[in-house]
Amino acid sequence: MDNDYNSLFYHALLDAIQASVLVVDDKLRIQSANRNFLEKGRRSASNTLGRPLAEVIPRVILENTDIEGRIQDVAKSGIPLHGQRMTYRAPGIPMRIYYYSLQPINVAGHRPQIMILLEDITEQVRLSEEVRRVERHLASVVNSASDMVLSIDIEGRILTWNLAAEQLTGFNFFSVKNTQFLERCAETHQSDVRKMLAEMLTEDSSRTAEWPLIKTNGSSILVSWVLSPMKDDHGKTIGVVAVGRDLTEQKKMELQLRQSQKLAALGVMAGGIAHEIRNPLAVCSSAAQFLLEDNLEETFRKECAHKICVGIQRTSAIIENLLRFARPSTKTDMAEVALVEVIHQTLTLIENESRLKKIAVNKQFDGKEIMVRGEPTLLQQVFMNLFLNAINAMPNGGELTIRVFQSDTEVFIEVSDNGIGIPSNMLERVFDPFHTTSVVGEGTGLGLSICYSIVRQHLGSIDVDSSPDWGSRFTIRLPKL
Amino acid sequence: MLPENAAILLIDDEADMCWAVKRILTGKGYQVTMVDTGIQAMEQVQCKHYPLIFLDAKLPDVEGLQLAERIKQIFPDTHIIFLTGYYYRDDPVITTALSKGIIDGFIAKPFRNEDVLNALIY
User: Fold this and answer.
1) Which of A166, A179, A416, B19 is 20 to 30 Å from B90 at the Cα level?
2) Tell me: the pLDDT tens digits for A263-281?
3) From residue A23, how far is each of A30, A36, A48, A76 by CA, in Å?
4) Which CATH code, of 3.40.50.10170, 3.40.50.720, 3.90.940.20, 3.40.50.2300, is assigned to B7-118?
């Protein structure tokens, strides 16, 4: 009864496993075959049991693997054979890969038997090759990137470091592997790096930063970083992926651009200075030459001398303005200034001019006095420049509107006209020295650049909006006291 | 040499500059008309023949060279002298304008008064 039960249990167990199981005797005759083997080989127990192994297993396998010799070795020695790989390729059938082991069964009073365990691992091999192929592909993508791609664990240690990182820093992967990323960054930024990496472990969002990386020669390169949290299958942050771009080239180009902009500005300024200064110089020169002539009328002689004086004053004023623009006053006697009062004072100075040019002045103040920190004469200079520009922009009369209002932190002063407007291509250069000359047709073209300089000195800003359709609007923002 | 009594047009928006040039020319008996914008200049050349024009580089409404080109298109025989402080003698802008015939002479400000008179000989 027990033997029957054991036999049934044994066969049920063999039939249940996915591998093929054969038992042969020392004459290589099949003693037992499980269901999996029979199904795979499309055989029945009756045409398998008792038959020689050579009839049951394809000849090509027997020829290529010497499995028969090995079975006999195991039968003789009683030592099991583990983990043999066997590849089987028959015409018209895809290649199959098997893994087999041989287990001797020695029972006293019986001929030795050998159990052959045959496992089809074709699919596992294919999958692991696929995984390796994908891994190789990903590694080559990361290594081919011109940007640095690194991964860092939650302790801040470097896990991966691609070819671009090796090339840019000079450190190869093995010299930085498992070292602190922090140590690769310039000392000046290490506290920023530490703080951001710590924040990234608790927050989900990506971050950007500019941190210099140290090179093997001790110098550093400025790198723009995009840092993203690296997650495991459960969504838990297990590190950070950092993608960095070397900014050296970009910074160099920015510098070149700034240099060329400076040169362009210098070109404009040189032209402006030449035009503005040589005109009064030419008047002085001609008048002086007239004075060298004999028999001059007294009135003409005086007129010449007067023109010379005016010309010298004009030249000097241009140079003075230029100096003011280049080296703004650093006077620290800034005081509390009643802004509306300064505007009113400035308006009285242009009253006559605006009446002559048929210009209506429209004041929109909210009544209350507004205090700012500043230098009244400088602020007056700014308003004067803006008012005169507005008047010059309305040769056929018009309306000059001055609006003062405030937010919680800032005071706004808007000066608008409904004049000819500024062409859109000139708008962004309107505060550059000498750029306004040909538009306004009068003055030195330094007025708005000085306004800009003074407003900046007052920690404020000045903007312009303009269109030939409705005129121009200058907006000054000053910090509120 | 420009005949005496010939009409000369002076285009410059600097009043004092016009005062000086006018005085140099009227002293030699020439009739000088002064205008200070490109628009006025075009009006003048269309209603009266000016064999000689003195022209500034920067005018409130137009660049001097643009104006010179426009005048030359209509009146190619008009002699235009560029009188300006904006450029220097070998300035590429000036050499190009001279070689293209847009202007016929260049005087840099400040100048010798006789330079203005020498420009009348061509």
Assistant:
1) B19
2) 766 776 677 778 889 999 9
3) 6, 13, 11, 16
4) 3.40.50.2300
